[in-house]
Amino acid sequence: MKLSFSPASPFARKVRIAAIELGLIDKIEFVPETVVPGQANEKYSRVTPLKKLPVLMLDNGDVILDSYVIVEYLDELAGGGKLIPTSGAARWRVKSDHSMLQGMLDSMLLCRYEQMVRPEPLRWKAWGEDHWNRAWSGMARFENQSDMLSRPFDVSQIALTCVLGYADFRFADCGWRKAYPNLDAFQEKMLARPSVQISLPPAT
Q: Are 168 and 202 in contact (CB under 8 A)?
């Protein structure tokens, strides 16, 4: 299998953490890819018209899109039920938590593009603030969900780790650690896992 990825992508990081935790990391070839808003990438567009990272390309030519779907595929390949519960209330709780975290990452990425990529005269301050508030309010919700922060390791906890890691990486002065001490403790616990350390984004 081949995974298109960028070391800075929190979505690709989620897949990398999952692959390590599931014992599948050695079965995946990592293919660096550059996707920049406003810039064409015709080769990658033939892989996925959405030009989003990551994408998992199977040996038979099939392409699996979306970081969650890739993790779900890997979880099934590893026997199922390791990172995503297979049935019952726990399954829907984990999937719902993950959907919120995925949306938070989407909003944070849009904030990043608005601040760093969009030409300054075209920036929409209220739009950027609205997206940041979605991520910030999501952190506030998870700050008060003790079950989420303490249950056995799953895909939504991986996603939360990636959200907080992306906040450290791209929004270092946002103050989330001071505002949300329970999330701070959770993240420090996660950073003790080799999979989380190995997948840290580059320092620059």
A: no
